[in-house]
Structures are given as structure tokens and as C-alpha cells.
Amino acid sequence: MEKTRVVIVGASHGGHQSILELLHRYDNLDITLFEAGDFISFMSCGMELYLENSVTNVSDVRNFEPKLFTDQGIHILNNHKVSQINADDKTLTVNDTVSGKSQTVAYDKLILSSGVVPNRLPVPGHDLANVALMRGYDWATTIKAKLDDPSVQNITVIGAGYIGIEAAEASRKAGKHVTLIDMIDRPLGTYLDHDMTDILTQHLTTQGVDLIMGATIKAFKGHDRVTGVETDKGTVDTDFVIQAAGVKPSTDWLKGTVDLDDHGFIQTNEYLQTNLPDVYAIGDATLAYSIAAETKLPIALATVARREARYVCQHLFEKQPTVPFKGLVGSSALSVFDYHFATSGLNTTTAKKAGVPVSISFYQDTLRPSYVPADKNNPTVSANLVFDPATHRILGGAVLSTYDVTAQGNVLALAISQRLRLEDLAETDFFFQPGFDRQWSLWNLAAQHALGESQF
Question: Which one-letter DSSP state was computed for residue 86?
């Protein structure tokens, strides 16, 4: 019996999960995965751990080794860039970037998980030596070498999102003088609301990170290598620049074939199908349906790609899937030196972009009962809730502390996905034990505060 040919483009989280699902669910498939890069499935989200010497080896910071699947008959080809979809005859044009040869590969089902590429600032001097990107295996090893180089003393990080914060922290821990620059007015401003970014801004300064917010990069200065970063607020002397200024979909090769939006994101329907028959798209190069916003948003997370891959493979051989993809919440977490935070769903920035009216409530208290001294592991915990002002439906929020409370973000994610209201969360039966929490749990108290109840 002839095998059904399933081709996957991209070896990161979406591609990895697709193979796992296909192997688990189906027999008699001929599965091929093409990856444009040399190193299969490097996890850029694990780069900070590598830079801080907290991993076994840089080559272990990956989703999978090809041998895991090639031993099972899966074709895993690195350095193979898919350049064209020929929808009429259901073939792909694939270029071997090492040999320069191209080939035509047939498919019955095609899963696009092409991901994103980091933005390079289009300013003079962008091609100077010692200007790096915070993404991928090659840049990870380049940055690590600079952190270990005693001649590199001043590092400038451009972009104060998750990746930029990770770069700044790793650089400080390596003993470097660090300047963090962003065009927005506060670090992590697109992820957290003001109450929490105010705390983290002060903490970053305390940890020795120089902040230049609300700045525009004019140029990278230098001759053969970078020696300064020119902004509209002055020039920063530097030995090394790490660019973490956002990403864009890796979809230029799809223009004119697959429907894209104005920003280059692949357009999919409620079944994650593209405009081409038997061609599906998942991951960072698509817009994900947000349960909180009830519309599609860019949610570039590994968790999103994996859940989308699971759905696509479950329904891959149905002419029309029995159910649409239910959507996602979008949850993430990060450490910023001594602080840890988790966030889920919408904040005021993302809500505004989605056109969703929201109210926000900020609550702060101690982790455990007040009779436990602060120096006995009873730190301050901050929590905020974003909710629909009319219905009190919970749409998002975040939690922050020097104590690791990030697992509380999963509670919030569940509340959002189940469309709970403040009233539900205010009374949910969580456990109490004074070695861990208060008589009412953190989210009970935060919801009660949002409802205007007297402080417990």
C-alpha cells in the first residue's frame, strides 16, 4: 500500500510536535521534515541558561536530535530550504544550501511551521563586526564567546522584551557593563502593566543595568567593528551589541502563493488551513486565536506552536475537521535577576491593540500570613487582574515576586480559558497552609480586591 506523504517545513517546536503526533496517531506515512538551518531544533528560549553555564552542553539545547526520528524512518534534512510551493501538482521546490542543488519533492499533506526571524535594525553600521542577534545556535555560541572574553567590557542590548532582558541579565552575570535600550518607555512594557514594570525597572537599575528607554537607534558607530551605538539621546560606547528588537514572520518565500496579511503572517481559517488545499500552518508565522480577545493575535510561544500542531495532526485526514481549533490563552514566565513573574492572557497594551475594553486591578500583599516575618520567607507578592468591566470575565493578568510564584500563572491561564469571572475566582476553593500561603489564596484575594471588597 502506497504511503501518504506528509512534509513538514521547520524543525522547531511545531515541527517537532507534528512528528510526535503523526507517529502516535497514524501508520503508513512517509514523513519528511525540511530545516533551512544547519543545527536541528536549537531552543533559543534556552539560550540564557546556556550563556549562564546552566546547561550540560550547547548542543543539548534542542528539542530533538535527528537520530531520534531517522531511526524510525523519518527523513530529517537540515540545510534544506523550501523556496516554493507548487500547489497545482502538490510539489515543493527545495534547495540544498550546502551543495546548491535543488529538487522537487511531492507531498499529500503539507504542514508549514516556518517560524520567525529576528529583526536587524536597518541603520548605518548594522553589518559591523560584534553586532549579534539573540537567536539560534550560531549566535548563541558567538555571544557566549564574547561573555567569556575579558576584552569585551561594555555590552549594549537593544530591545527590552523577554529576549533583551535575558541578554542583559546574562551579560551582567558575566561581569559586563550593560546598557539596555528600547524605543518604548519601559522595560517589558508590552508584556506587563505599569505597576509591575515600575518594580522591575527599579530592580534592573539596582542590578547595574543602565536603562535608556524611549530612544531611537540612529546608527552603529565604528570602522571594522562596532564601538558605539548612536541614539537620539546620545551615543553609548560599546564593545558588543546584542540585537533583540523583535521578530518577523519567515514568509517572504510564500508571497503570491499562500495568503499573508499585511505584516507577513500566514492567514489560516478556524481549522488552521491555508488557502491552498492540504496545506496547514502553525506556530509563530501565524496569528493565533486568543480566547481572551476572541480574535487572532500574534502569540509567539512554543506552547502555541505545539498545541496547534497537535490539533492539525488530530484532524489531518478529515475533509472538514469535526471541531475548529479552540484557541489559546498565551502564557509565559520570566526571571529578572531576583524577581520572577508569570503572565497570561491580555494586558492593557495587547487589549488595546485587539480593541478589547478592559479594567485592571493591582493587588499587593505578603505571600504568607502577616505574623510570619519577611526574613522568614514571607516576601511581597504582586498580582494584577485584567477583566471585562461589564461582565467581570477574567481576560488576563500577571503575578510577580522575589519568591517563585510563577506556577500561579497556570491558575490564571485556566481561569481565562474556562471564562471564569472575578466572582468565581474570589471564591474558588484553594488550599491553605501557612507554610505556603494565606487563609485566602493569592488569586482569591486579588479577585476580592478587584471587586472592591475590604482587604482581608
Answer: E
Nearest in space to 275 (alpha carbons), one of 112, 69, 159, 164: 112
- All three cell numbers of 404, joined, read 517563585
DSSP state of 254: G
Q: What is the pLDDT of residues 391-441, one digit of tens each?
A: 999 999 999 999 999 999 999 999 999 999 999 999 999 999 999 999 999
Instruction: Provide DSSP, 72-83.
Output: TT-EEESSEEEE
pLDDT tens track for 362-382: 999 999 999 999 999 999 999
The tens digit of pLDDT for each residue in 93-152 reads: 999 999 999 999 999 999 999 999 999 999 999 999 999 999 999 999 999 999 999 999
The residue annotated as part of the active site, out of 24, 45, 80, 340, is 45
Q: What is the mean pLDDT of residues 154-164?
A: 98
What is the layout of strands, in order, in the sheet containing 226-231?
Answer: 217-222, 226-231, 234-237
pLDDT of residue 1: 75
pTM of the model: 0.95
Contacts of 223 (CB under 8 A, 6+ apart): none
Torsions phi, psi for 441 (to 5 deg): -65, 165
Measure Cα distances from 330 to 68, 155, 187, 288, 292 in Å.
29, 31, 20, 9, 9
User: Which member of 13, 16, 315, 392 is catalytic?
Assistant: 13
DSSP 8-state code for residue 44:
G
Give the Cα separation of 366 and 379 in Å (integer): 6
Beta-carbon contacts of residue 308 (< 8 Å; ≥ 6 apart): 14, 272, 282, 283, 286, 288, 325
**pLDDT for residue 375:** 94
Look up cell 542590548; give the residue. 157
The answer to whether residue 13 is catalytic is: yes
